[in-house]
């Protein structure tokens, strides 16, 4: 009866078709890296809510900060400052790479990407921003314009969107971990020769240091430095989208720190709000102030409860050096996966830190995406859930809380190996 009730809720007729539920769990409670459903079943959550919960579900420090702010006031609007916002601003200023960073507060990741694109236009006077193959920056119109996924983009290109004037150039991708896929650093040349746009009108590049939705492709060594020089030489802004990779997930405070590169703009979200919606664009004042007053605001931006939660997250990340922990646990995970493939299955590990993708590169099935979906369903029935990604749909994604225990990493690998073996039998 319990599972029937769960099913009824999952198949609620109010769900729009675009919201595909590949996990299939009606969660009622979360704690640390675990979630429980209505029937009381326990699951290990390898998604951390799409990389949001750096400290796991229900962290006591985050909850206490949220509760305290709720007791004061829940929402004042961007026109009203709050000690919570000031506290988080101070935390961020200490970690961002410019002497006096300016923050443009938003609510969702996509919205902050829109704000970054607008900033690039205002600051450079040029209209275009380029994204990368495999890149993902959101599904609102502007963010979609720099997102490479053709299935996602087709909706916006086929259906006219009023006022949408951003062009859709996508630079060739160089973000594959496998050096053989990089084809050398022909990046600059390909942009200049791209037939769809004139380089003179390009105001910036937007890049992830590890492509999340694209399948956990880590930036090849040297790529970010190359992009930095490329942008500086052309007066373009280097916009680094750290929405997924920020706050320790890749084993450094921010992904760009691995190469000591200083971006022009950084976009943050996900873990920033400690589980509540919060995002921003950060950069030096000269760039952010190019956007005139009132051109980029939104009702729920810098929500004080989210800011209080985020400040608690940032303090804990620093106090416990969770970036170092992410690096170490990522290595443990990748080492475990190396031994997980049964005969006739070949696995590739991708990503960095606790942002890991395992591509099922060869499987005893023609349709690797379907094979991967079946492996995930088997894992779920064994109490572990994860999301699928990659342009081939054959990447199993590990983006757990940075606080996940070592034996939970081992459990996830063990269950993955078992599911692979069962699906291959
Ligand atoms: N950029 C990146 C790198 C992301 O991973 C995401 C979300 N997965 C976004 C942008 C969009 O953020 P949101 O879903 O909060 O709008």
From TrEMBL:
Q: Kindly give the CDD domains that the UniProt entry links to this protein.
A: OAT_like
Look up the signal peptide feature and give its range. none
TM ranges: none
Domain of life of the organism encoding this protein: Bacteria
Short name of any one Pfam family annotated for the protein: Aminotran_3
Q: Which UniProt keywords apply?
A: Aminotransferase, Pyridoxal phosphate, Transferase
Q: Which GO terms describe its molecular function?
A: identical protein binding; pyridoxal phosphate binding; transaminase activity
Needed cofactors: pyridoxal 5'-phosphate
Family, similarity comment: Belongs to the class-III pyridoxal-phosphate-dependent aminotransferase family.
Name the PANTHER family for this protein: ACETYLORNITHINE AMINOTRANSFERASE, MITOCHONDRIAL, AMINOTRANSFERASE CLASS III
| Protein name, UniProt field | 5-aminovalerate aminotransferase DavT
User: What species is this protein from?
Assistant: Catellatospora methionotrophica
